[in-house]
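Complex record, two chains
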Amino acid sequence: MEIVVCIKQVPDTTEVKIDPVTNTLIRQGVPSIVNPFDKNALEAALQLRDSYGGKVTVLTMGPPQAKDALKECLSIGADDAILVSDRAFGGSDTLATSYTLKAAIDKIGKVDVIFCGKQAIDGDTAQVGPEMAEHLGIAQVTYVAKMDIDGDTARMERENEDGYEVIKVKLPVLVSVIKSSNYEPRYPTVKGAIRANRVEIPTWTAADLDVDEARLGLKGSSTQVQKIFTPPQRVQGVVINKDAREAATELLLRLVEAKIM
Amino acid sequence: MSVMVSKECIGCGACEAGCPFGAIKMQDGMAIIDEACTQCGACVDICPVGAISRDEETKQLVIDKDAYKDVWVSLEVTDGSLKNVGLELLGEGRKLADIMGQKLAGVLIGENVEKLAKEAFAAGADKVYLVEAPELAHYSTDGYTATVVDLITIYRPSVILLGATNNGRDLGPRVACRVGTGLTADCTGLGIDEATGLVAWTRPAFGGNIMATIFCPDNRPQMGTVRPSVFKKPVPDYAKSGEVIKVASKVKAEDIRTQIIDIVHVCTASCNLEEAEIIVSGGRGLGKPENFCYVEDLANALGAAVGASRAAVDAGWKPHLHQVGQTGKTVAPKIYFACGISGAIQHLAGMSSSDTIIAINKDPDAPIFKVADYGIVGDIKEVLPILTEEFKKMKAS
């Protein structure tokens, strides 16, 4: 089974802070990590490989330093890694990113399952996966919590707002994976880390891919960031620090007074 | 369009620190902008000496944008009724359509759903595009993508709004990609830019730390998914009516590659967080899983849904379907009770647009108090039962 996992190196947004004076993002000291949902996706891929054999390739588009994220995935257990990197890809929105990744998948060749994390924690769009599936013309199943394969058919549990759907689909398929107890990421191993340092990670540029230049990067992007601003902060309200009964009564009075209840 | 640094640059590094995308490096005392730049323009405002500028350069027009008219809202159907988010978007879509001087239409896809059109008219739609077929009884990526793309090709809308539900976020990118247009995910603000007439899509990014306003200047339709509960449902006016435009489905059963073999409802009303008017959430501050009963009792008394913080879900106290926050559900109820929740930024990203936030926590320094309208410093086990009892009395009276 040929499996590709698309990952993204992201700033750890849990560590991002806003400078209270300039009201801008403080990026300094914020570590770059493998997008957490992509680790769930990698785990799903490794489980499939462990059960049915085959190969897991991790693929990312990003700047040269994104190789670190690929190395981490190799040390966790991926077999191969490919970096797609070129200045021409700069400023890509989801449409241009998915187009570029599609070309990389084409170059990889026959693929049975493509995994993505549900969304990246910096952009939070959840769009690159479905858009890749569309470019490739293959089926997609999003928000997957569990997956199994029977011959050429995959059976999945897809989360919805109040439960889940059980879905069957013939391969090839693109699957986006949610954080799920079925896919708790495994840890890197020493053996894996040694191998990760030895594996040659190829960098594919625009020239290596069969792409139309006009559809890459900013030129190929339909959306434009018009401005960035920090959200208006909520103003701290009343804090009641009294004995439980008094505090509860005061809260109720205030809620009734403000016509909230 | 491009962002440029002029020789006025003093190499102070303010832009490097302020770039949301880490796209600026200092080199030989000058700011250098690299390929990570999305041309958002944040640095233009940051630069103390005005050395950074953003050039607006018009792209060659590919499509005739004037041929695209009207604002569409995708109306999601669940268990035979319209999801609230569709009605909320009709209310907001009405405003956009009025500013643009265009019509508002609902897109209704399914089987035996024609009766729901009147709900759309009551919420402000001028017309409803109706596609009914047995193959469309349930949502499928393939069936619904083909149907929406077919409607776009025939009727050419200028704007499409979809709910940022799991199905909306499955369908949106597939449609946008097929018609080759831009899609802005998970918006929390919509407007029309006065200068350009474009839809200004505003959305949180970086885990809610920053907001970005996005344009789709050169492609049509302009598309976006919008979070549930951000906008209020319009008060229905059943005196209103409109035109139902029936369109024959072109989808055949074999076009749908996925097959739904079972639909499992894990949750009852208590985890319908997206549609709840009141949510009572619990976190690790409850101490142990059994103490979630205090949260549930209060929720029952209020007819509220039950939420949980990521920490509580990770500890196995509640299933993931209850999780509120960046990696769970985004909610904006009228009242949000945060019980024993410290208030990490990821949790705040999922609930800070609630109308009223009430926090109950033992720790007076918990960050949740900074965003709460009302806070009680106290023990959940003592405070919640009293509140539950009092709300029951209020209801009874």
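Note: The longest strand of chain B covers residues 258-265.
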